[in-house]
Amino acid sequence: MIDAVVIQPGVDTGEPSVAGVSWAAVAAGGVAACAVTLIVLALGVGLGLSVVSPWGGAGVSGTTFKIGTGLYLIVVAMLASSIGGYLAGRLRTRWVGVHNDEVYFRDTAHGFIAWAFGTILGAVLLATPVSGLIGAATTGAAQGAASSATQQASGPMDGYVDTLLRADAPASQNSANPSDTRGEMSRLFASSFRNGGDLKPADRAYVSKVVAARTGLSQADADKRVNEVVTQAKSDLDEARKAAAHLAFWLTASLLVGAFCASLAATEGGQLRDGTWRRR
After folding, report:
1. Are 96 and 280 in contact (CB under 8 A)?
2. Are 108 and 115 in contact, with CB atoms under 8 Å apart?
3. What residue numbers bound the domain in which 82 lies?
4. Rounded distance between C-alpha atoms, residue 242 and residue 219, angstroms
5. Which among 4, 22, 178, 264 is placed 20 to 30 Å from 233, CA to CA?
């Protein structure tokens, strides 16, 4: 038989009454990290605009700019997270009667929580302007639709309707409505390249006929132009996908580095707070 241990009221269990998490210090560190991030990012935008030039042979190359941007994101994460983590560790409440290893763990946790709070706060602050732009664009689109009620609204089924109403002999440049033709071609290209596909043979032949009718080119020259444009469009879309993948990689790397720096800086700040830094 193992007797149950009953803790009587008023008996000291060795556990301090101070909370293990100093939320005020965590909030202060997170806000400081977010503020430093915004300041350094604003500086980086200015520096980036000054080194990029729209003219060929001037400024840095696109590859150098992408690599420099990724490294800059990591530097920003290291600087801002270190400051926020240090403040979270230095400003936290002192724990009396807690083992040194437990103090070390709590300081590390304070830095990580401060980093997480600053990251979420920064994401919310950056999402607010984007939401405002989307709302303004939606309002403008609604006003435009109300002012042009006579025009048909585009929808996801327009591509199928275009296929149903497609004429065997495309109209010439003089008799066709340029806006209707451009809209049909835009919808056709958008639906074909949306998932990384290509123009179907029937669609490619129809596009070639429309190009020949609109430009006066021969059918062979129109086919050649269509092939060149489709190849260029696929190349541009592939470059855009690669750029998005690289940006996601750099963002992930900067977040991981920021979490590590915040945790490490919090331990340094906590040890300086308790006067145990030189002992370790």
Report:
1. no
2. no
3. 23-135+249-274
4. 35
5. 178
